[in-house]
Amino acid sequence: MANKFAIITGASTGIGFELATLAAKDGYDILVAADEALIESAAQDFRQFGTSVDSLEADLSTFEGVDGLLAAAKGRQIDLLCANAGRGLGEAFLDQDIAEWRKVIDTNVVGTSYLLQKVLRDMVARNDGKVLVTGSIAGYIPGAFQAVYNGTKSYVDSFVAAIQNEIKESDGVTLTNLMPGPVETEFFDRAHMLDTSVGADPKKSDPADVAKDGWDALMAGKAAIVSGWKNKIQSAVANITPNAVLAEQHRKMAEPGTAE
Question: Where are the transmembrane segments (predicted)?
């Protein structure tokens, strides 16, 4: 119980897996969660670093799933939260199944907002704690053939910036937005995007590099970090580019059948 305690969501693979690895290496006891059974084997990997590791398979798109995650903390003070759980979805919006696009919104928007509200209340009350949220530079770009996902990340990016302002008097609490671009993870397979230009691109970011960027920014108390120099340029250009142009550019990356 002497170690600090961290919760990392979406930790079975990708960025979340790498964030959990960094937390365990840094001496945090961790509770890791994901919506798949693979989280159990991921937890085994994290135990090699000698801290306490608990895992939970949970649907964090629901209030019940988030409540179950917090209950699994067993009353321990949450010193660090990596709110990384997210869901993608490609293809044309009109062709998407309603249940699938609603799951994206419920996971990325509803679940993330609820988890942050529950955790940040306690952190702000004691004026101590760290939260890293996985947003995306996709939030700056109208996502043709990825419309719902990009819309949810626009919400996350804006939401985090707003909450940072609301809690600015709590100088002991750090809230950081990690904004990567395309990352080499299972995301594109799960989002039905392997036949797209961006899904097939072999030059996507390494999740370990993205996680390290986010971790370093969090520990330095930064408000936000865009991971990767190409993504920094893209996010900056997006602020001065008309939406119609951005949407057409995104279409070329995300339209099904564009993979080379």
Answer: none
Domain containing 178 equals: 5-254
Q: Is residue 74 part of a domain?
A: yes
- Domain assignment of residue 259, yes or no: no
- Paired strand residues for 176: 132
Q: Is residue 260 part of a domain?
A: no
What is the distance between the alpha carbons of residues 83 and 175, in angstroms, rounded to a whole number? 11
* Least confident window among 72-76, 95-99, 161-165, 225-229: 225-229
CATH classification at residue 240: 3.40.50.720
Q: Give 185-235 pLDDT, tens digit per residue.
A: 677 677 677 778 776 767 768 999 999 999 999 999 999 999 865 666 677
Counted domains in the chain: 1
**Total-model pTM:** 0.90
